[in-house]
Amino acid sequence: GQKVKAKITGIEPGDKGRLKISLSMKELAQDPWDTVTATFAEGDKVTGKVVRLADFGAFVEIAPGVDGLVHVSEMSYTKRVNKPADFVSEGEQVGVKIKSIDIDSRRIGLSMKDAEGDPWLDVADKYQPGQPVEGTVEKQEQFGIFIQLEPGITGLLPKSIIARSEKPATYEKLHPGDTVTI
Fold first, then answer.
1. Is 132 exposed, middle or buried (0-12, 13-18, 19+ CB in 10 A)?
2. 86: which DSSP letter?
3. Which residues are 162's β-sheet partners?
4. Interval 30-54: pLDDT, tens
5. Which residues is 23 bridged to in the sheet?
6. In CA terms, which of 6, 91, 96, 167 is 20 to 30 Å from 17?
7. Is-contact 27 13, C-beta < 8 A?
8. Mind listing the pLDDT tens digit for each residue in 58-95?
9. pTM of the model as a whole
């Protein structure tokens, strides 16, 4: 019983001598890409919904009928993302930053990691040489120990420094996941 406006897209003979009329409501609606440049600009931060996952990234709808791609390399500064499905799921709301808009190709490049910010931007303000800090051991290598100070910020404690410390055995006994002050 709902009244709608539609455009007649075709009339052809149907069965039993009746005409078959094809209608489209979509063709009457404005193309959402016509207003993209008026609504969005490169550098804008917006929230969108993950609508489709692919091996190379996630498509995020930032407005009805307007999707952009978050390439797998643009998903996180703090985690290595091999499969987008391990990081996001369809239907999830995510914050993104618009990196590029190509109206002719109807493509928008998006970044989740730029929306959350680069954790390295204020490292020089947070950490000073000689400052004691607490971190979590990520892994031991022959040349030293990788220690995470915060998500996305990992430093290397070289073997040469460990050897000169007061208690080198303390560092050599560390395992991934252990907390240590350095």
1. exposed
2. G
3. none
4. 788 888 888 899 999 999 999 999 9
5. 8
6. 6
7. no
8. 999 999 889 999 999 999 887 888 899 999 999 999 99
9. 0.63
Tell me which DSSP letter residue 48 carries.
Answer: E
Chain centroid offset of residue 145 CA: 29
What type of residue is 23?
Answer: L
Task: Round to whole Å and give the CA distance between 151 and 59.
Answer: 25
How many residues can be counted in the chain? 182
Distance CA 147, CA 130 (A): 16
Residue type, 65: G
Cα–Cα distance between 24 and 3 in angstroms, integer? 14
- Among positive and negative, which fits the CA dihedral 12, 2, 34, 52? negative
Q: Supply 43's token pair.
A: 């550098």
- Amino acid type, 97: K
